[in-house]
Write a structure and sequence with these properties.
The protein contains eleven helices and 16 strands. It is α+β, with helices and mostly antiparallel strands. It has two domains: about 250 residues, 2-Layer Sandwich (BirA Bifunctional Protein, domain 2); about 70 residues, 2-Layer Sandwich (Enolase-like, domain 1), CATH 3.30.390.
């Protein structure tokens, strides 16, 4: 097994790194990858971006929006959240068998005197005490899988000391919007940080995220009892991963264009008046139809039809017809 600690905290690089390991590296090798990202929201490949995030909050907080190659729901990453990936030769018996990868993580958490268990959705939950003194379970891990003809990835998150307030605000849909599509919707769960439970349990040694990563990696490798090689990327490999990150994972076509066709109803403000607009988007995030009950405004907005639903593109039309920068925010 080859152990890899990503050399980057850039989310697009790390998403590209997983695909690169799966599609372009030695197809007989097994990899265990760990990485952490700067603040970012990571969607599943089949999700509609407009149903998963607060666009204006992400922009204000400089949180990246990205999309991975696996399914599942949207997750929030920051530097206090640890991501793990098992990348292996394709084995049909292990595809969809998440437990074989989650059990060693659960066993490691138990060594920290944490009561961890695997949930119904192949996630990990911790037992903790509520403010009222009752025992409850909170989620710390979500998982997803990706397969191709040769390899499969089982990956997930571990909330160690993530900013849960930012997490909540980033995934909270604004009140002025309704979205309908055939996308896979995220299932929201009550979450908690591992560090918070350690503190509640008065653990003797509160780990840093770096110590947690190192100890978890060591435990998993011992658990599988396989020869280990710490893998370091060559410069040409890094160059290829960076190229994939820029050309695919950072692109509008991948992040936004893969959202399914949808219908968005928004309450907007124009010249101090509130209007309800209905926008139909195709899969490529292009406006197919736009309507509002005010005939005067409706005529002006028809210029948006065939335009990409992208702030930079909409501004070119909305600013000249009288919308202010503040009013344009209601469109997103």
């Amino acid at each position: 097994m080859k152990l890899i600690f990503s050399p980057s905290h850039y989310p697009f690089f790390n998403l590209a790194l997983e695909e690169y390991l799966s599609n372009f590296m030695d197809k007989e090798s097994e990899y265990l990858l760990f990485y952490r990202n700067t603040p970012s929201l990571v969607m599943g490949k089949n999700q509609n971006a407009w149903e998963e995030m607060n666009y204006n909050y992400l922009k204000a907080q400089k949180i990246f929006l990205s999309r991975r190659i696996s399914g599942g729901g949207t997750v929030y990453h920051d530097l206090k959240n640890l991501n793990f990936s098992f990348i292996k030769p394709l084995d049909t018996k292990k595809v969809a068998n998440y437990d074989s990868f989650l059990v060693p993580i659960v066993e490691f958490l138990k060594t920290l005197d944490l009561h961890a268990s695997i949930g119904k959705r192949s996630d990990i939950w911790l037992e903790t005490q509520s403010k009222e003194g009752k025992t409850e379970k909170r989620k710390i891990t979500g998982t997803a899988q990706y397969t191709n003809k040769n390899r499969f990835i089982t990956h997930g998150t571990l909330l160690f000391d993530t900013d849960l307030e930012k997490l909540e605000k980033a995934i909270t849909i604004p009140t002025n919007v309704e979205v309908a599509s055939k996308s896979l919707k995220s299932v929201r769960s009550k979450v908690i940080n591992i560090k918070e439970v350690l503190i509640k349990n008065r653990a003797n040694n509160i780990l840093t995220i770096e110590e947690f990563e190192e100890k978890l990696a060591h435990f998993i490798l011992l658990y599988f009892n396989k020869p280990v090689h710490l893998y370091k990327f060559k410069k040409e490999e890094i160059d290829e991963i960076e190229k994939l990150a820029e050309e695919k994972y950072k692109s509008f076509e991948w992040v936004w264009g893969r959202s399914p066709a949808s219908e968005i109803i928004r309450k907007i403000i124009f010249k101090n008046q509130e209007y309800s607009i209905k926008i139909k988007l195709n899969r490529g995030a292009i406006i197919q139809e736009i309507n509002t009950k005010n005939d005067f405004l409706n005529n002006k907005l028809q210029k948006l039809v065939t335009q990409i639903y992208k702030k930079e593109e909409l501004e070119k039309i909305l600013l000249p017809i009288g919308f202010t920068e503040k009013e344009i925010k209601y469109w997103f």
